[in-house]
């Protein structure tokens, strides 16, 4: 197993275990701009408990059946080599490597989390147990940078995006070299925007 995939697998398992507790790449990824313009501001469309609502549910049938379909050809636009490779983590996810030959050690794992029947509400329910919890928006969709262990200084960042009010997608990157080593969360905004764009247009 490639080193970056091993790191991502460990990190994703931890992230998913925390995110589902309450439920009933990538230096190369930033070399080329991705579609969409992620906004750092917090969402305004919130429910009564403060959890942001999804503005319009995205189609997720293909995503759940095949997580590697989340990006399609848009993977190339964010510096990821396609196709991705399905992994054996539960729930199933997809792994991509950087398309830059010099940055093959960098990678991304993306996984929908069907265990979270309440979507981002389940993520917000774990807020007090997270090492960091930073709400944001990705192409108008509510999201949170969050993890139970803060590994950002080691090139690892976790992003949770609400694609419907009942389903979230976790994206984790592992950067070993390149300009995003000190800011591993930045590539995730581009990858998240690419995913949202692809889900909208591929439906």
Question: Could you state the order of secondary-structure elements as H and E?
Answer: HHHHEEEHEEEEH
Number of strands: 7
For the report, how would you describe the main beta sheet? 7 strands, antiparallel
Describe the strand arrangement of the main beta sheet, using strand numbers. 1-2-3-7-6-5-4
What structural class results from the helix and strand content? Answer: alpha+beta
Task: Look at the structure and give the mean pLDDT.
Answer: 83
How far the N terminus sits from the C terminus, by CA atoms, comes to 33 Å
Number of helices: 6
Radius of gyration: 15 Å
- Counting structural domains, the number is 1
Residue fraction in strands: 15-25%
Overall, the morphology is globular
Give the % helix. 25-40%
Sequence stretches where pLDDT stays below 50 over 5 or more residues: 1-14, 17-44
Pfam families: DUF3558
Organism: Amycolatopsis echigonensis
InterPro entries: DUF3558
Signal peptide: 1-23
Question: How would you sum up this structure, described in words?
Answer:
The chain is of the alpha+beta class. It has one domain (3-201). The chain is 26% helix and 22% strand. It has helices at residues 3-19, 26-29, 61-65, 74-77, 120-124, 185-201; strands at 85-86, 94-97, 107-113, 132-138, 141-147, 156-164, 167-174. The protein is globular.
Q: How do the strands and helices of this protein lay out in sequence?
A:
Blueprint: H1 3-19, H2 26-29, H3 61-65, H4 74-77, E1 85-86, E2 94-97, E3 107-113, H5 120-124, E4 132-138, E5 141-147, E6 156-164, E7 167-174, H6 185-201
Antiparallel strand pairs: 1-2, 2-3, 3-7, 4-5, 5-6, 6-7
